[in-house]
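**User:** Everyone, produce a chain:

**Assistant:**
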Amino acid sequence: MSHILVTGGAGYIGSHTVVQLLLDGYSVVVVDNLDNASIIALQRVKELAGKQGKNLSFQKVDIRDKAALEKVFSETKFDAVIHFAGLKAVGESVRNPLLYFDNNLIGTIMLLEVMSAHGCKKLVFSSSATVYGWPKEVPCTEESPLSALNPYGRTKLVIEEICHDVYRSDSEWKMVLLRYFNPVGAHPSGRIGEDPHGTPNNLMPYAQQVAVGRQRHLTVFGTDYSTKDGTGVRDYIHVVDLAEGHIAALRKVSDPKIGCEVYNLGTGKGTSVLEMVAAFEKASGKKIPVVKAGRRPGDAGIVYASTQKAERELNWKAKFGIDDMCRDQWNWASKNPYGYESTENNTENNNNNYNYN
């Protein structure tokens, strides 16, 4: 059985990926500082994995704590690491760039140092389409010019460069850097989904909060782009498809021929903000009041992926469309209107199943 360390595995994309890893027969250790995640997500992951749930363990660790990370690696010999841990709110990164450089960059450097010291040199890294900045041409290919427009995007870009440099210095490393576009949706069971702490930064979590009555309206930033309805166009991808992309990437780092490779994970299709809102209204049966506002600085008009490289080399392709994404997002939201918090005081919030440092 392969032993996989997943950093940030209690978060949105991490928890969905951990379910898939367990169901595919991997043994998984999750480390997470729970800054923007809930332990309840992992308890539900364990439940969704059925009898494979016994192969999941959790340690509350901040990856900047090198001694704690060393302890995790000394207890288990890992075959590979999937690295999700990091802060991800664009607006917050503009207001507090040092927090992002400290958390995302220092954390990743610590992780790579500890991996190297323990002879674990296979990494799947959670990068982002923000590294394309405001693309002059779409779809974005892996060779498109790179330009981060905010501190969050810069941390992803710098980490990619660090990974390339580490590989150039030591060819034993095998790395896959996944640039993903706009993850939405939830597990079809409705048991796990996106539950941002504080005010959501992304379209769909905000729309779902409007639908369940937590927010009064949805603000749409920018209605004068050169698009069919004037609103920004993005490549929305179902989080379950994204999780499958990480399994494909994990298989790829076992390929002796791979060095440090970059892949886009998206659908290859652009959908406007208003099209997405309409699809969510249809799925939820709720009217989403929209307030139109000016463009946000740094927001690109149209961004979507070329996915040919991932289809060809990872043997991976997104299966779900926006109707599936909205259906599953609403299923999660309607069952968990206040996210994991609504179950915080019940027996589900019993952490005894997990190994804490």
Observations:
- The chain has eleven helices and 13 strands.
